[in-house]
Amino acid sequence: MRLLFVLIFVARCAWAGGSVFGPQPMGDPMVRGGVRAVGLGGAGLAMWDSLGMHTDNAAAMSGITGAVLRAGIFSGLYSVDDGELTDTDSEFGWQAFRLMLNVHRRYKMSIGIDPVSHTDFRTFGQDSLAFNSDSGTVYENFESRKVWLGSATDIRWDHAVTLSKKLSLGATIAFASSYLEANHALDFPTTGSSGGARDVLYHDVQRFRGFWGGLSFLAKPTPRLTVGGFWQSEADGTWNLERAVNHGGRNTFAEPSGKRPGAFGVGVGYAWHRTWAAYLDTRMQQWQSEHYGPMFAPANVDDRNATSVMFGVEKMGGTRNTDEGFDRWDFRAGAAYRLQPWLTRDASGAVGDVNETALSLGVSIPLTQQAGKLHAALELGQRVASDADVTETFTRFYLQLDMHERWFKRERRTLRD
Q1: CA distance 45 to 67
Q2: Each residue of 296-317: pLDDT tens digit?
Q3: For residue 263, is it within any domain?
Q4: What is the C-alpha to C-alpha distance for residues 302 and 108, in angstroms, rounded to an integer?
Q5: 132: which residues sit within 8 A by CB, 6+ positions away?
Q6: Which DSSP state fits 350?
């Protein structure tokens, strides 16, 4: 049996949003599709080869020739500037575990878990509280601290069927769950003759569980042109919200019918030479107020669209015996624009859309002749809030290792007298 083991180790070092951009109702702003797609700005829905395997396009799995095991981790360092305040956070999480099986030359199947986790530490903030007393209006200063934890997990069952040399179809059934925990502490200093400090602690936990399905395709109408796309349904399930205050008890709310947003996207690839190709993808999510969950219901969020446009160019290394050194390396460059479904407020209360632009570079280095490749990608970008004085820059580093093992035949043994 020939096995292709793919281990992805994703390390991110990013200057990104903490105090202003979190907590957010969305799960994951990271680039999807694997490290190769990252080097292309996130594009690659139309990849037609064994290294495609774009996570959004199950039909791309049709290119594998053996089993594939995928796993990954990531870490990050975040910093944001909103004009008056700055914030620095760190996080560590794990992402993507999937086993893809080459059941038949025309049928591939995968079972996997795609987990993503985030932790955001908001730095200290100073504020004041006004209340009326017998002596008039009294102002009391306090210190505010916020910490939020977020995670989202898809347990997926993917299928890919090759109908012809020019068309493959994919289907996905998945169980989705998300978790968002927000902790808010108000620390009041020692006041009055009692000399006692007061702390008010808010603890909110929001959960979602539901199912979604998806369809995808990968087509090659001409030897140079490829087209890929996917559609993902809304996740139907249940929202749960637990809200506790240290001076007010605990309340639990449940919504028997809840939803998470679906998504759809399409990509085009064009190879004008045996070693040169370009990819252009677009992706969209339609967010409605019910998709954010009960934790954000008091904010009266509006219906919004999250849109991404990604473009990348790839130079693939040669595979001839005469190709050596850098001639065997793959090089990539890409750019992306992403409109997130977030609204953020600066210190003055101004509200702004979150727009993200990024440039990326990528490289794949063959380890030995037909033994595997080491993939790396670097993404540089900036997020801004259009109507608020908020800016963040980020740098992300991704690393992926592909290890190949050739087919082997089991030796037959005969019994001796």
Answers
A1: 21
A2: 776 666 677 889 999 999 998 8
A3: yes
A4: 40
A5: 138
A6: -
Residue written as token pair 């509200």: 351
Q: Cβ(85)–Cβ(46) under 8 Å?
A: no
Amino acid at 102: N
Structure-token pair, residue 118: 């985030």
b/e map of 149-171 (b: 16 or more CB within 10 Å)?
Answer: bbbbbbebebbbbbeeeebbbbe
112 alpha carbon, distance to own chain's centre = 16
Q: Check which CATH number belongs to the domain holding 343 and give it.
A: 2.40.160
The answer to whether position 410 is within a domain reads: no
Range of the domain at 357: 3-405
Q: For the chain, what is the domain count?
A: 1
d(CA 281, CA 142): 48
Q: How far is CA 125 from CA 128, 150, 202, 347, 390, in A?
A: 10, 22, 16, 11, 17
291 in a domain, yes or no? yes
Helix residue spans in 257-322 (DSSP H) = none
**56-68: average pLDDT:** 83
Give whole-number Cα distances, 182 to 57, 86, 165, 199, 252, in Å.
Answer: 33, 20, 50, 16, 15
Strands 225-232 and 263-273, by their bridges, are antiparallel
- Burial class, 359, CB count within 10 angstroms (exposed 0-12 / middle 13-18 / buried 19+): middle
Residue 161, CB-side half-sphere exposure with 13 Å CA sphere? 5
Percent residues over pLDDT 70 in the chain: 65
Residue 411, Cβ neighbours under 10 Å: how many? 5
Of 54, 101, 409, 381, nearest to 216 by C-alpha is 54
Q: Quick one: pLDDT at residue 107? A: 95
Place of tokens 């927000």: 182
In a domain, 411, yes or no: no
